[in-house]
Amino acid sequence: MAIHPILRYPHPLLKKICHEVTGIDREIHALIQDLLDTMRAGPGSVGVAAPQIGVTLRACVVDVSNSRNGRENNHGLLRMINPRIIARSGSAVMREGCMSVPDYTGDVERSTELRVSFLEPEGELREITASGFEAVALQHEMDHLDGILFLDRIVSVKTGLFRRKTYA
């Protein structure tokens, strides 16, 4: 459908809590496709959430299958409407980046395993258990739906924020 420009911090829409999707219609299908197109166009992108393209609805896409960190352990392309975390366990600190904050990366503590439920664009309710890098990517994108950026979760502002040298 369309590749959208990614909103950059400090754009106020990035700090908004998104609205639940109340019905899956042509507009929602178009939104999901736009998220996919935008993710695939982004350098090294493994996910995009609706607020990053200016839409305050609870929808995001994640696909870590082409990433060196997620290649071995993933569910492929996830098109998620109204996702929510049902359970979480474990904890690890990983370096994260974001297309909405292109000049920085940061060390963020995340759960290492998640149980997530969401609607697929076809209207089917799905539950998955994700771990490793895929779990991190899911938490990152779902945070966007609550107006939270990785900057808000940096383990130490003094030692955990880094200027990005290259975008990979």
UniProtKB/TrEMBL annotation:
Q: What InterPro entries does this protein map onto?
A: Peptide_deformylase, Peptide_deformylase_sf
The free-text note explaining how the cofactor binds reads: Binds 1 Fe(2+) ion.
| Entry GO MF terms | metal ion binding; peptide deformylase activity
Which catalysed reactions does the entry list for this protein? N-terminal N-formyl-L-methionyl-[peptide] + H2O = N-terminal L-methionyl-[peptide] + formate
Q: What is its EC number?
A: 3.5.1.88
Q: Which residues form the active site?
A: E141
Q: What class of enzyme is it?
A: hydrolase
Sorted keywords for this record are: Hydrolase, Iron, Metal-binding, Protein biosynthesis
Per the entry, what this protein does is: Removes the formyl group from the N-terminal Met of newly synthesized proteins. Requires at least a dipeptide for an efficient rate of reaction. N-terminal L-methionine is a prerequisite for activity but the enzyme has broad specificity at other positions.
UniProt similarity note = Belongs to the polypeptide deformylase family.
Q: What is this protein called?
A: Peptide deformylase
